[in-house]
Fold these 2 entries.
Entry 1:
Amino acid sequence: MTPERTSHTFIVLVEDLPGALNRVVSLFRRRVVNIDSLTVGRTERSGVSRITLVVRADANAARLLEANLYKLVDVIEVRDVTAEPVVVREMAFVKLGAQFRGEVMQMCDVFRARVVDLGPASITVESTGSQDKIDGLIEALKPFGIVELVRTGAVAIARGPISPEVQT
Amino acid sequence: MALQLETEPKHAEEDAPSPRRTGAQLLWEALVREGVEVVFGYPGGAIMPAYDAMPAYPIRHVLVRHEQGASHMADGYARASGKVGVAVATSGPGATNLVTGIATAMLDSSPVVCITGQVASPGLGTDAFQEIDTTGITLPITKHNYLVTKAADIPATIREAFHVARSGRPGPVLVDITKDAQQAAVESVQLSPPHRPRNGKRRSVRTEMLDKAAELIDGAKRPVILAGHGVMMAGATRALRELAERSDIPVAQTLLGLGGFPATHPLSLGMMGMHGEAWVNFAVQQSDLLVALGMRFDDRVTGNTKTFAVGAKKIHAEIDPSEIDKTVKVDVALVGDVAVTLEELLSRVKPRDRGPWRKHIAGLKGEAAVRDIVSLPDDGRLYAAHVMHDLWRLTKGNALVVTDVGQHQMWEAQYYRHDHPRKLITSGGLGTMGFALPAAMGARFAFPDDEIWVIAGDGGFQMTAAELSTCAQEGLKLNVAVINNGYLGMVRQWQQFFYGGRYIATPLKSPDFVKLAEAHGLCGLRVDRRADLPNAVEKARAERGTVIIDFRVEAEDSVYPMVPAAADLHDMIRRPSPIEETPYDS
């Protein structure tokens, strides 16, 4: 009986230093855990980067990953927000050929996506939303011939006033 | 880490106005500030500026013969002293040669700081001569590492490196310093106390968890304490003894935990695990409560985790939260300093007398004693177990013993009974052959006057035997017992048990160890009968310099009992009983 593996979303605050991301990622690689998505960027504090990381793991493995992340000296704060009230969003660009531009634009209306580039030979669509919504948009656009697709991976933020503490 | 905190240097009296200094000078100043008295190293192009500046500082340098020796020596020094050991090497091959020693320190939580030279910063990433990604290579085998490219960053980096190495669960730290950072001269540097590692969400052990643990301890009928390395690192040996005595709980130890509880204490069971004595493993399997202290349920300790002590509730006191529920699910987790946790438990548990449980275990012991090789009559042959037992008697159990990896390591753990902490140094987690000789050399600097015995097999000894010339050059006194059976014995034993007796690549031809000693200007002795052992040991102890004793032991002896890898802990291969005459033959 193997424990159920579910999707876990971690918010990891790290020092904005060369190699910090490598240390975080290496910890997953070593345990043969595939990272579903990873986003990194600066935060409201200088010198602090924020990683949103999504993996599939069972509950105990997720707890151990969190405990191991804490052991990294460059890591400031870790939260497994999977079970918490959070807003999770991801962004995607989808480029298609121009022949179905009418239909594509209609689809964009339905999914509240935006056209960001339009030329004689191509149309490019931008969409922000939950993973499900982006999956849905991509499914809907497939019949019109997707030429290129890029997704950012998830970013997450807790609802309400509480934020991860940054201790210095 | 109560003991170690006391040795942390004061960071007070710095930043007096001073002239410009080079990065190399700042490095040695920083090491002196951390209390470093000896470093183990090997020079080379990218670390030459540091070496050039070294003589101005009160630090002894030990020139090793291979950088692996340097990292093992720093590790041995750290384990013996409880202070941070330091190794120095150049870039490229110098750094890569350190790797085995760094990994050894990582797996056994030993506080080591490695300083490596790196090519000048414009050469980084260009495949310059002797340029290699040292921080990349050592990332997974260090607690943390640094690449320093500016002289001004050196003091704060060294300070933080030492702090990281010795705080919390200790471990190795590497500082890679570019040649231009060593050469550049800078004004005096401001230093503030290190703010990392952060305490993070350092949870203090929760009261209700302690209450729960005490309740389980008080209520248990068949409890066993499992004591690990962490007990000694936390300076909790006295508290462990008090708990065992007040609650009347037998104590089993991990390999690295030996010495954390006196082996001659009536409540001491000895080592558990793959080569633990049968009564220890039976006691663990039959227990109704395990109190695990500063240990990590290694697979060599538990055997098959699915059948490990299934009838026992489990309490786990451990400083590293990532060890909780890692391999064995526990009922009560007490995350924090083991010494503090034990004090808290002591104030809660009630005195107990568990006579029936002790009697039961004593019965298990009696059964095993029949098979004990020490009970075998002297048949003229030399058994390694006899060597360990006799060494223990002749040194009155007081020597600092440094073992290598393999059969002799297990025999030492079984037959040399350690009553005091930090008197056994061995590579447990990584199982690094070649560890013993250099680690003992490092330990010598921590204890200039103690009797030190290196015990190594003929295989492992040859891996780092080049350090004998370091021994001779530095005038270090060690007694080296080579347990010579002409095989890579532990692998041979596995081949005998699990690979149809096909001894592939395990028969081993060695040099004449007596002549090898003499070639280094050292004394060499040979023993092939048990009767000659006391004389040789006496001679070795009397000799001023390092002595090698070549013990020609029984070639195809095996370590018993043995729990095959991943088998159930109670499913042991036992030494064939001299009475039953039922040799193991499956």
Entry 2:
Amino acid sequence: MRGREGPNSGITRLALFIALAISCLLISFQRNSERHTSDLGIAAQEVASPLANILAVPLRHFEGFLSSFTERRRVFDDNIALREEVAILRERQARYDNLANKVARYEAILGVDTETDIPLRKIAARAIGETDGPFLRSLLLNVGSRDGVMMGNPVMSTEGFIGHVINLGPNTARVLRVSDLNSRIAVASAKSGAPAILAGDNTPLPKLSFINQPDDWGIGDRVITSGDDGFLPRGLNVGQVVKGKAGDLRVRLSSQTSPVDWVWVSPYKRILAPVETLEENNQSATAQDDEGTQVIEASNAP
Amino acid sequence: MNYLSSRSPIKKARPALIAGAVLFLTSAMTISGLNLFDSRFGFEFLPLLVLVIWPRHANTPLSLGLVWLAGLFTEWATGDITGQWSLIYVLVWGVFRPEMRGTPFAPLGLVFVWGLICLVTTLVLFLTGYFVYGILPDLWPIGRQISLATLTLPLIVLLRRAILRRLKDYDDWG
């Protein structure tokens, strides 16, 4: 198409104005609404992921090359520290084995099952994209529904819980990180078992809210997923309790310490609420109607 | 083309299409980033570099349509607020495109324009984010994104110059 329109002719100005107005309109629709992804969003994610997959290889090599300098500088100090840590951990391992045997015996005597419901199967994935913007904390994984990933599945790194899957394509999955503004996770103190909600606020230290008994929470306590929301299994390592600047309780995330590259998805099947059958519903509705009629009749009686 | 000429240049579809394809490619790259010095350097500002060096002779309506769609694609790919990046791209393209500038690729002028673009983008991100989420943005990620894109700017300009030297229709890109 050829034309001799000036850079700021009437038509250009009008087209610009329309494009700006549509963009503003799209933004205004999202005010105070839940973040959800359209099919077009998932399609765009699927289109961009092969490029991100290709880009990830040289980028990770470049990061590795730069970090290797600092790693080499620290290698001797790290070696000494690790040897000391291994010696301590060997002794702890022996104690842990004894305790595990003891607990297993008690469980057998009492007939209880204290196992967490974390699935043993794990789906390994690579974080090919990471959005760490002013308002958004998310990851893009190179696995999707074809690999067995489901909506809401927890995503872990070697350090701990990262987030959960919020949208899913055939080959990609987007993960909402715990620190994101829209993230709300049911957590518990590993020490006291006290429940709370971990609310992301786009800071590295998400806030612990809805705490009933503040005494049950101490600085340094380990925080795990409680499983109360039915979406996540109980017992995933989230982080440690720290005191915020305003004196409130916050969590230093275990997964925040290092950049995310390889992760795994737990194909956890969410616990669904029991569904009443149609007959049961009808029966209960009829019983309520009968009671209602009786009450009305009784009130009308002289 | 003479800048003071009263006649506007002939607008061609090919430069717009090629620039649009590069813009889409960099938009797809926005889902990636670099982890350096325990910080994340996102690629969100890289597509803006393409807008800075947009061909002057590119067809205007076609360019506008491609720029707006690339903005939408960025939002969908990154999961950002829908309309945010398309607003930024259109605004940056509409105000700062090379044909609106006197000496579009003079080094000092380019740095000045890039500074303005970063300022406008930050302001729009700030306002739209506050409007939708009701919280103030974390400015550190934006700062890191800007610094990475700023370091890439000279490379992009040199690359553009090197490619243009090999093109027969140099005037269409100017």
